[in-house]
């Protein structure tokens, strides 16, 4: 038992952190929100070069083998830097196609996986039971929808609608299109994709929560009121201490879920990670807003990029009550 | 990163499980906070010690098995899953013993530890004073030099276990002229039946004497009962309080077992349409898993040679709030019965000839009707557990103090007025 990231995984996190810092991701997110996908596409290429999209696919499709722990490491960093785009969706689509191939339907994986792995293609995805929308369909080259026991390559999407997180845009996939797979394998592959989606969303939440806490700590050390730093007031300190407790107990759940993700029965750990990371990120957002005062309540200040993402991710891929229901077996 | 145990660790787990299945009392012992219950729990310590299960992490020469942190955690999981009794010797084992291992003399270890392991000497904690709770630097009780030892005077309070225990350990001001308030303190062990000691039990919220006031009037202790250098008590005590806030006092096994009982209570009593309560049951399960994995992560860091510091404050805030939440959920699930403190609804104890379940079976998911663990629908353990949990955010350094430590040492926020 060694429940600890290894040196390589830590180095991977540092690499991504460096890449994303250099990319000025707040500006990238603002451009993305305004409908300009070019800077986001450039970041996407750098993430692909760092190997982020290889982590959910096996070697026979140009992947690095399915590595959920490394994927979680990456998504914590993506959340910390508020990277926009259908990141979770692309990884979940890769997991879906990989699982289909493992269940004897290799065609779609052969055709689509290599371009997802190299970062040439971006996918967005809708799964049963988690809402009708796909994220960032206008920036994705593949719109996948799982419904009625089939995986469809949708022919496009309806009107793109604004999310309360301006860097997320939602649309319904259009009906019809090519059916990539149908039958019992689809259901199992969709469940597998949902576990990957929940894990990566949870990891992203953890990163979002940590970024909000870091920025708030920096702010309350500098901002003075009544002649002293705001951060010296006990009410402020205790609120931030609570945020840290929440995040530090969500962290092992995220990595625990990654360790057990390959297990078909592993809903409990994934559910725990999704609930706990989403809740703790949300509490971090509420504290960040309160402790930044009115400056935090402006769209001009960068913290808004994380504040509203914490709320949006809390409901993405099913809300916390839905995931809590998965965390405990129902009475019989 | 993995969560797999070595074959040796799994063997150890199965050995613990088999021993517990064969030895855990079939009927729950009377409350630890009564004279009768205290005696029964002391006898249970003796049973544990006879097969070296009372202090598994200690070296063999003192009655342990030399188990490392991972094995100790596995033992604790099995211990609570088996519904085994609370540990009357916990103060000594988890607070005094680590201090003696780090700072005691060979003579002190040889004299104090084996009887502690056997439950023959039960130790009480004597930290707090009427004017010094979390602020231990303001302690006033004194240790004055006397030929061959020291004379203790003053008053200790909220001393856990002191109503029935044999000996106590605590801090005394040995140098009133020390420059700073936390210098000049001696870490002293003393007998609770010595001339000059008066014990006044204090009823906790439910009236049970879980702690006591200790009055000391010129009580003699020999030099051999001072741990480390007189005047060095603060530094020595701080290493102990870290243990108390952190792992030693609350292993994950306890909360995993409690969450498991709550799920069984929900299955027995729960209304499936009451999703608000279901969410709280889920949070109990999620919280126990979070605590377990947090602990595994720290165990891994510790095994990798990292020193854990202020993280024990994160731990303390988490488990103390968690413990209350899980008991509140249980009381709400019990409805009107959640007010009862007797055990009228308890299932009959397992008959002596009942066949034991296979103790080596890895499947622990199905509730075992012959388990000595009280039936989850029995209100008494929940109401007593609730009363006990209410003290969690207060003792071992209040959660307000812990949040200050977290904010200042982990987040780097400036010190300010308390």
TrEMBL record, chain A:
<dbReference type="InterPro" id="IPR009075">
    <property type="entry name" value="AcylCo_DH/oxidase_C"/>
</dbReference>
<dbReference type="Pfam" id="PF02771">
    <property type="entry name" value="Acyl-CoA_dh_N"/>
</dbReference>
<feature type="domain" description="Acyl-CoA dehydrogenase/oxidase N-terminal">
    <location>
        <begin position="7"/>
        <end position="120"/>
    </location>
</feature>
<keyword id="KW-0274">FAD</keyword>
<dbReference type="InterPro" id="IPR037069">
    <property type="entry name" value="AcylCoA_DH/ox_N_sf"/>
</dbReference>
<protein>
    <submittedName>
        <fullName>Acyl-CoA dehydrogenase</fullName>
    </submittedName>
</protein>
<dbReference type="InterPro" id="IPR036250">
    <property type="entry name" value="AcylCo_DH-like_C"/>
</dbReference>
<feature type="domain" description="Acyl-CoA dehydrogenase/oxidase C-terminal">
    <location>
        <begin position="191"/>
        <end position="324"/>
    </location>
</feature>
<dbReference type="InterPro" id="IPR009100">
    <property type="entry name" value="AcylCoA_DH/oxidase_NM_dom_sf"/>
</dbReference>
<dbReference type="Pfam" id="PF00441">
    <property type="entry name" value="Acyl-CoA_dh_1"/>
</dbReference>
<keyword id="KW-0285">Flavoprotein</keyword>
<keyword id="KW-0560">Oxidoreductase</keyword>
<comment type="similarity">
    <text>Belongs to the acyl-CoA dehydrogenase family.</text>
</comment>
<dbReference type="InterPro" id="IPR013786">
    <property type="entry name" value="AcylCoA_DH/ox_N"/>
</dbReference>
<dbReference type="GO" id="GO:0003995">
    <property type="term" value="F:acyl-CoA dehydrogenase activity"/>
</dbReference>
<dbReference type="GO" id="GO:0050660">
    <property type="term" value="F:flavin adenine dinucleotide binding"/>
</dbReference>
TrEMBL record, chain B:
<dbReference type="Pfam" id="PF02770">
    <property type="entry name" value="Acyl-CoA_dh_M"/>
</dbReference>
<keyword id="KW-0560">Oxidoreductase</keyword>
<feature type="domain" description="Acyl-CoA oxidase/dehydrogenase middle">
    <location>
        <begin position="124"/>
        <end position="219"/>
    </location>
</feature>
<dbReference type="InterPro" id="IPR013786">
    <property type="entry name" value="AcylCoA_DH/ox_N"/>
</dbReference>
<dbReference type="InterPro" id="IPR036250">
    <property type="entry name" value="AcylCo_DH-like_C"/>
</dbReference>
<dbReference type="Pfam" id="PF02771">
    <property type="entry name" value="Acyl-CoA_dh_N"/>
</dbReference>
<feature type="compositionally biased region" description="Pro residues">
    <location>
        <begin position="369"/>
        <end position="379"/>
    </location>
</feature>
<keyword id="KW-0285">Flavoprotein</keyword>
<dbReference type="InterPro" id="IPR052161">
    <property type="entry name" value="Mycobact_Acyl-CoA_DH"/>
</dbReference>
<dbReference type="InterPro" id="IPR006091">
    <property type="entry name" value="Acyl-CoA_Oxase/DH_mid-dom"/>
</dbReference>
<dbReference type="GO" id="GO:0016627">
    <property type="term" value="F:oxidoreductase activity, acting on the CH-CH group of donors"/>
</dbReference>
<feature type="compositionally biased region" description="Low complexity">
    <location>
        <begin position="355"/>
        <end position="368"/>
    </location>
</feature>
<comment type="similarity">
    <text>Belongs to the acyl-CoA dehydrogenase family.</text>
</comment>
<dbReference type="InterPro" id="IPR009075">
    <property type="entry name" value="AcylCo_DH/oxidase_C"/>
</dbReference>
<dbReference type="GO" id="GO:0050660">
    <property type="term" value="F:flavin adenine dinucleotide binding"/>
</dbReference>
<keyword id="KW-0274">FAD</keyword>
<protein>
    <submittedName>
        <fullName>Acyl-CoA dehydrogenase</fullName>
    </submittedName>
</protein>
<dbReference type="InterPro" id="IPR009100">
    <property type="entry name" value="AcylCoA_DH/oxidase_NM_dom_sf"/>
</dbReference>
<dbReference type="Pfam" id="PF00441">
    <property type="entry name" value="Acyl-CoA_dh_1"/>
</dbReference>
<feature type="domain" description="Acyl-CoA dehydrogenase/oxidase N-terminal">
    <location>
        <begin position="6"/>
        <end position="120"/>
    </location>
</feature>
<feature type="region of interest" description="Disordered">
    <location>
        <begin position="338"/>
        <end position="384"/>
    </location>
</feature>
<dbReference type="InterPro" id="IPR037069">
    <property type="entry name" value="AcylCoA_DH/ox_N_sf"/>
</dbReference>
